[in-house]
TrEMBL record:
Gene source species: Methylobacterium oxalidis
Pfam families: Cytochrom_C, WD40
Matches recorded under Gene3D superfamilies: Cytochrome c-like domain (1.10.760.10), YVTN repeat-like/Quinoprotein amine dehydrogenase (2.130.10.10)
Spans traversing the lipid bilayer: none
UniProt GO molecular function: electron transfer activity; heme binding; metal ion binding
Cytochrome c domain sequence ranges: 336-437
Protein name, entry field: Cytochrome c domain-containing protein
Coiled coil feature spans: none
WD repeats: 37-78, 120-150, 161-201, 283-323
Superkingdom of the organism of origin: Bacteria
SMART domains: WD40
Length: 440
């Protein structure tokens, strides 16, 4: 929330064998074939299911990725190389995986490998989405540096797609191999891969957070206005499905393309009949953000969220598979029920604690933030760009951060771009933080 991030670096990028074994053992004991998958130490930010549906790869704010056996309910391997949240993952047909991190690097993992077979660091901002070409030979990536990139998995130079004014939040391939990107600049773009300028740009009334393409070529996009939009392969809008009230932050299509699952920052997941353009039912979870989802088959969905779990859902009934653990992590905001500022802050709680005991998460703790110079919170590794800024956090500077947005006010941050448009809400947020972050 308050300008941070370069993400906190993991002191042990290469875990020792005993530590890795213990981690996997704990994951196994906590799992179970009919239970939720447990193992991440932070919200589950990204999910991808293997082609046979038996396994999955997940990425988390805890800076790790995990390879899972869904059928056994166990973790097979923990992958650590990123120096920030793992925002994007992709299961490859050969059993390998690709992971994308907040620090801007992409890692290619071969089956069984304990270190990446290759890493790519051309992006200058967080990687937030990955996609594999229909023929399985090329990897597309979307980044908050304002670009998408396309590279041969076998090696070679990446092709750069520039034009979005701001974060590129989603990327996908059309059935005929063109590239589709979704941006914070409220545009959907369809790119030919021959380097021509014949880019189809669709301008919308809302920033876009995610995009997917159905087997028949229809494009599905989710936006900040709590809607799912359906487009023809050439970008003509067919339908707008409102699932509100919170922004749509993740999408998944069933293998047959008949259903769309749309997740929101408020924790709801709407399952939509794509052909009819109508919601069928909602999945009822613990009310925490659902950051990621993927269909295991037409009959089963898996979701990852703010409770650090991967949950399984029966798409025939809309019910959870196995016991639905509804216990929520400790709620730092429970003591502030009814405080408008606390409600505004709730979207920031996944990345920032308020008290010394809460420690650093994906972002630094906000304990004692008032009167503190930017990029000086103890125990957190900040980017050099932030360390050079002359900002001291107080009521005025925190309000300004959310008035103009982190990218403009604190250039060099990896903090998610967000603003608070209401002056009253900004004032309430500042008053809340003054109370809640006093060092004890």
């Amino acid at each position: 929330m308050v300008a941070h991030s370069a993400a906190r670096r993991d002191a042990a990028v290469r875990p020792t064998a005993p530590l890795l074994a213990l981690t996997l053992l704990l994951c196994t004991l906590a799992g179970g074939a009919e239970a939720q998958l447990r193992g991440h130490g932070g919200p589950v930010r990204a999910l991808s299911v293997t082609a046979d549906g038996r396994g999955a790869v997940s990425g988390s704010f805890d800076q790790s990725a995990i390879l899972w056996s869904i059928e056994e309910g166990t973790a097979r391997q923990v992958l650590r190389v990123h120096e920030g949240a793992v925002n994007a993952v992709l299961a490859l047909p050969d059993g390998g995986a690709v992971t994308g991190g907040e620090e801007g690097r992409i890692a290619l993992w071969r089956p069984g490998g304990t270190r990446p077979a290759a890493t790519f660091a051309e992006h200058q901002g967080p990687i937030v989405a990955l996609a594999l070409s229909p023929d399985g030979t090329r990897l597309a990536s979307a980044s908050w540096d304002g670009t998408a990139r396309l590279r041969p998995l076998a090696g070679g130079e990446a092709q750069v797609f520039e034009g979005h004014k701001g974060n590129v939040n989603g990327v996908a391939f059309t059935r005929d191999g063109r590239l589709v990107t979704a941006g914070y600049d409220a545009t959907l773009r369809i790119w030919p891969l021959d380097g021509s300028d014949a880019v189809r740009i669709v301008t919308l009334p809302t920033p876009l957070n995610t995009v997917a393409v159905a087997p028949d070529g229809e494009i599905v996009a989710g936006g900040a206005d709590s809607s799912v939009r359906l487009f023809s392969p050439d970008g003509a809008e067919r339908a707008v499905i409102e699932i509100g009230p919170s922004p749509v932050i993740a999408l998944a299509l069933s293998p047959d393309g008949g259903r769309v699952a749309a997740a929101t920052v408020a924790g709801s997941v709407s399952v939509i009949d794509r052909k009819a353009g109508k919601p069928l039912f909602n999945l009822v979870g613990p009310g925490l953000p659902v950051w990621s989802l993927a269909f295991r088959s037409d009959a089963e969905l898996v979701t990852g969220g703010g409770d650090r779990l991967i949950r399984r859902w029966d798409m025939r009934t809309g019910q959870p598979i196995g016991m639905l653990a509804m216990a929520r992590p400790h709620d730092d905001l429970a003591a502030y029920a009814g405080d408008r500022g606390a409600e505004v802050f709730r979207a920031c709680a996944a990345c920032h604690s308020l008290t010394p005991d809460g420690g650093n998460r994906a972002g630094p703790t906000l304990s004692g933030v008032f009167g503190r110079r930017i990029a000086t919170a103890e125990g957190y590794n900040f980017s050099d760009a932030l360390k050079k800024l002359d900002i001291v956090w107080n009521a005025e500077t925190i309000a300004k951060l959310f008035e103009v947005g982190p990218a403009r006010y604190t250039p060099g941050t990896k903090m998610p771009e967000q603003t608070v448009g209401s002056a009253a809400d900004r004032e309430a947020l500042v008053r809340f933080l003054e109370k809640a972050t006093q060092a004890h």
